[in-house]
Amino acid sequence: MKRPFNFLAGMLALATLTLLASGTVYAHPGLEGVGGGFLAGLTHPLLGLDHIVAMVAVGLWSLSQVPKFRSMIPLLAMLGMLLGALSAWAGLVIPGMEFGVAMSVLLMGLLLITLARMPTSLGSLIVVLFLFCHGQAHGSEMPSGIAPWAYLAGFTVATLGIIYLARRAGSLMAARDKHLLKGIGVAIAALGASFVIG
Protein backbone atom coordinates (compact mmCIF):
# COMPACT_ATOMS: atom_id res chain seq x y z
CA MET A 1 0.00 0.00 0.00
CA LYS A 2 2.97 2.36 0.20
CA ARG A 3 3.15 3.09 -3.53
CA PRO A 4 -0.32 4.73 -3.82
CA PHE A 5 0.41 6.94 -0.83
CA ASN A 6 3.82 7.88 -2.25
CA PHE A 7 2.16 8.74 -5.56
CA LEU A 8 -0.51 10.88 -3.89
CA ALA A 9 2.09 12.60 -1.73
CA GLY A 10 4.09 13.40 -4.86
CA MET A 11 0.98 14.80 -6.56
CA LEU A 12 0.21 17.02 -3.57
CA ALA A 13 3.82 18.23 -3.45
CA LEU A 14 3.75 19.04 -7.18
CA ALA A 15 0.49 20.94 -6.84
CA THR A 16 1.83 22.88 -3.86
CA LEU A 17 5.04 23.82 -5.67
CA THR A 18 3.06 24.91 -8.73
CA LEU A 19 0.85 27.19 -6.67
CA LEU A 20 3.80 28.62 -4.78
CA ALA A 21 5.67 29.24 -8.03
CA SER A 22 2.74 31.18 -9.40
CA GLY A 23 3.03 33.74 -6.62
CA THR A 24 -0.71 34.36 -6.82
CA VAL A 25 -4.08 32.65 -6.87
CA TYR A 26 -5.56 35.01 -9.43
CA ALA A 27 -7.15 33.23 -12.36
CA HIS A 28 -4.78 34.54 -15.05
CA PRO A 29 -1.48 35.89 -13.76
CA GLY A 30 1.03 37.36 -16.15
CA LEU A 31 3.66 35.39 -17.99
CA GLU A 32 6.53 37.80 -17.52
CA GLY A 33 9.87 36.03 -17.73
CA VAL A 34 8.47 32.93 -19.42
CA GLY A 35 10.28 32.56 -22.72
CA GLY A 36 9.36 30.62 -25.81
CA GLY A 37 6.00 29.70 -27.24
CA PHE A 38 5.93 26.12 -25.99
CA LEU A 39 7.12 27.01 -22.50
CA ALA A 40 4.64 29.89 -22.28
CA GLY A 41 1.82 27.57 -23.33
CA LEU A 42 2.97 24.85 -20.97
CA THR A 43 3.18 27.25 -18.05
CA HIS A 44 -0.03 29.20 -18.57
CA PRO A 45 -2.51 26.52 -17.39
CA LEU A 46 -0.30 25.77 -14.38
CA LEU A 47 -0.38 29.40 -13.24
CA GLY A 48 -4.16 29.72 -13.32
CA LEU A 49 -5.95 28.15 -10.36
CA ASP A 50 -9.23 28.02 -12.29
CA HIS A 51 -7.59 26.08 -15.14
CA ILE A 52 -5.86 23.59 -12.84
CA VAL A 53 -9.01 22.93 -10.83
CA ALA A 54 -11.20 22.53 -13.92
CA MET A 55 -8.82 20.01 -15.50
CA VAL A 56 -8.54 18.09 -12.23
CA ALA A 57 -12.35 17.96 -12.06
CA VAL A 58 -12.59 16.71 -15.65
CA GLY A 59 -10.04 13.99 -14.95
CA LEU A 60 -11.73 12.85 -11.74
CA TRP A 61 -15.26 12.99 -13.21
CA SER A 62 -14.15 10.94 -16.22
CA LEU A 63 -13.64 7.96 -13.91
CA SER A 64 -17.39 7.60 -13.43
CA GLN A 65 -18.12 7.44 -17.17
CA VAL A 66 -18.53 4.35 -19.33
CA PRO A 67 -15.18 3.10 -20.69
CA LYS A 68 -15.77 4.24 -24.29
CA PHE A 69 -16.67 7.79 -23.26
CA ARG A 70 -13.91 7.87 -20.64
CA SER A 71 -11.32 7.10 -23.30
CA MET A 72 -12.68 9.92 -25.48
CA ILE A 73 -12.57 12.65 -22.83
CA PRO A 74 -8.90 13.69 -23.25
CA LEU A 75 -9.42 14.01 -27.03
CA LEU A 76 -12.61 16.01 -26.47
CA ALA A 77 -10.69 18.24 -24.06
CA MET A 78 -8.04 18.84 -26.74
CA LEU A 79 -10.76 19.62 -29.30
CA GLY A 80 -12.46 22.14 -27.03
CA MET A 81 -9.16 23.85 -26.19
CA LEU A 82 -8.16 23.98 -29.86
CA LEU A 83 -11.49 25.43 -31.00
CA GLY A 84 -11.43 28.01 -28.21
CA ALA A 85 -7.88 29.14 -28.94
CA LEU A 86 -8.46 29.31 -32.70
CA SER A 87 -11.63 31.35 -32.19
CA ALA A 88 -9.69 33.83 -30.04
CA TRP A 89 -6.91 34.10 -32.63
CA ALA A 90 -9.52 34.63 -35.34
CA GLY A 91 -10.68 37.71 -33.44
CA LEU A 92 -13.91 36.25 -32.05
CA VAL A 93 -14.75 38.10 -28.85
CA ILE A 94 -17.29 36.29 -26.70
CA PRO A 95 -18.73 38.46 -23.91
CA GLY A 96 -18.58 36.91 -20.47
CA MET A 97 -15.97 34.29 -21.31
CA GLU A 98 -14.34 34.65 -17.89
CA PHE A 99 -17.76 33.95 -16.39
CA GLY A 100 -17.93 30.84 -18.57
CA VAL A 101 -14.57 29.69 -17.24
CA ALA A 102 -15.75 30.23 -13.66
CA MET A 103 -19.03 28.42 -14.32
CA SER A 104 -17.18 25.47 -15.82
CA VAL A 105 -15.32 25.02 -12.54
CA LEU A 106 -18.54 25.24 -10.53
CA LEU A 107 -20.48 22.85 -12.77
CA MET A 108 -17.64 20.33 -13.04
CA GLY A 109 -17.48 20.33 -9.25
CA LEU A 110 -21.22 19.60 -9.09
CA LEU A 111 -20.87 16.79 -11.62
CA LEU A 112 -18.05 15.33 -9.53
CA ILE A 113 -20.17 15.49 -6.37
CA THR A 114 -22.88 13.41 -8.03
CA LEU A 115 -20.46 11.27 -10.04
CA ALA A 116 -23.13 11.66 -12.72
CA ARG A 117 -22.81 9.21 -15.61
CA MET A 118 -23.69 11.12 -18.77
CA PRO A 119 -24.83 9.85 -22.14
CA THR A 120 -21.82 10.08 -24.45
CA SER A 121 -23.41 12.74 -26.67
CA LEU A 122 -24.36 15.06 -23.80
CA GLY A 123 -21.14 14.45 -21.91
CA SER A 124 -19.06 15.14 -25.01
CA LEU A 125 -20.87 18.44 -25.56
CA ILE A 126 -20.25 19.46 -21.95
CA VAL A 127 -16.53 18.67 -22.09
CA VAL A 128 -16.02 20.46 -25.42
CA LEU A 129 -18.04 23.50 -24.31
CA PHE A 130 -16.25 23.85 -20.97
CA LEU A 131 -12.83 23.39 -22.53
CA PHE A 132 -13.75 25.84 -25.31
CA CYS A 133 -14.08 28.51 -22.61
CA HIS A 134 -10.63 27.67 -21.26
CA GLY A 135 -9.14 27.55 -24.76
CA GLN A 136 -10.60 30.98 -25.49
CA ALA A 137 -8.98 32.33 -22.33
CA HIS A 138 -5.63 30.74 -23.19
CA GLY A 139 -5.76 32.00 -26.78
CA SER A 140 -6.72 35.55 -25.87
CA GLU A 141 -3.95 35.75 -23.25
CA MET A 142 -1.15 34.49 -25.49
CA PRO A 143 1.89 36.75 -25.06
CA SER A 144 2.86 38.73 -28.13
CA GLY A 145 5.81 37.72 -30.27
CA ILE A 146 5.67 33.96 -29.74
CA ALA A 147 4.78 31.12 -32.11
CA PRO A 148 1.04 30.38 -31.79
CA TRP A 149 1.33 26.68 -32.64
CA ALA A 150 4.12 26.15 -30.13
CA TYR A 151 1.99 27.92 -27.53
CA LEU A 152 -0.99 25.72 -28.47
CA ALA A 153 1.15 22.59 -28.15
CA GLY A 154 2.37 23.72 -24.74
CA PHE A 155 -1.00 24.34 -23.16
CA THR A 156 -2.40 21.17 -24.74
CA VAL A 157 0.37 19.09 -23.15
CA ALA A 158 -0.21 20.78 -19.79
CA THR A 159 -3.97 20.25 -20.00
CA LEU A 160 -3.66 16.56 -20.87
CA GLY A 161 -1.02 16.08 -18.19
CA ILE A 162 -3.30 17.51 -15.49
CA ILE A 163 -6.26 15.42 -16.67
CA TYR A 164 -4.28 12.16 -16.75
CA LEU A 165 -2.57 12.79 -13.41
CA ALA A 166 -5.91 13.63 -11.81
CA ARG A 167 -7.41 10.48 -13.29
CA ARG A 168 -4.58 8.35 -11.93
CA ALA A 169 -4.79 9.89 -8.47
CA GLY A 170 -8.60 9.63 -8.55
CA SER A 171 -8.52 5.93 -9.41
CA LEU A 172 -6.35 5.33 -6.35
CA MET A 173 -8.72 7.32 -4.16
CA ALA A 174 -11.81 5.63 -5.60
CA ALA A 175 -10.32 2.24 -4.83
CA ARG A 176 -10.28 3.25 -1.17
CA ASP A 177 -13.47 5.31 -0.89
CA LYS A 178 -15.53 7.04 -3.59
CA HIS A 179 -16.61 9.60 -1.00
CA LEU A 180 -13.12 11.09 -1.32
CA LEU A 181 -13.93 12.06 -4.91
CA LYS A 182 -17.24 13.58 -3.85
CA GLY A 183 -15.46 15.55 -1.14
CA ILE A 184 -13.07 16.97 -3.72
CA GLY A 185 -16.12 17.79 -5.83
CA VAL A 186 -17.55 19.84 -2.96
CA ALA A 187 -14.29 21.78 -2.65
CA ILE A 188 -14.11 22.39 -6.41
CA ALA A 189 -17.75 23.51 -6.59
CA ALA A 190 -17.18 25.90 -3.67
CA LEU A 191 -14.10 27.32 -5.38
CA GLY A 192 -16.03 27.66 -8.62
CA ALA A 193 -18.80 29.52 -6.80
CA SER A 194 -16.21 31.92 -5.39
CA PHE A 195 -14.93 32.54 -8.95
CA VAL A 196 -18.49 33.22 -10.15
CA ILE A 197 -19.32 35.57 -7.29
CA GLY A 198 -15.93 37.29 -7.21
UniProtKB/TrEMBL annotation:
**In this record, what's one Pfam family?**
HupE_UreJ
Provide the alphabetized UniProt keywords.
Membrane, Signal, Transmembrane, Transmembrane helix
Q: Where is the signal peptide?
A: 1-27
Q: Does the keyword Signal apply?
A: yes
Query: Membrane-spanning regions, if any?
Result: 37-61, 73-93, 99-115, 122-140, 146-167, 179-197
Query: Domain of life here?
Result: Bacteria
User: InterPro entries of this UniProt entry?
Assistant: HupE_UreJ (IPR007038)
Q: What is this protein called?
A: HupE/UreJ family protein
Higher taxonomy: Bacteria, Pseudomonadati, Pseudomonadota, Gammaproteobacteria, Oceanospirillales
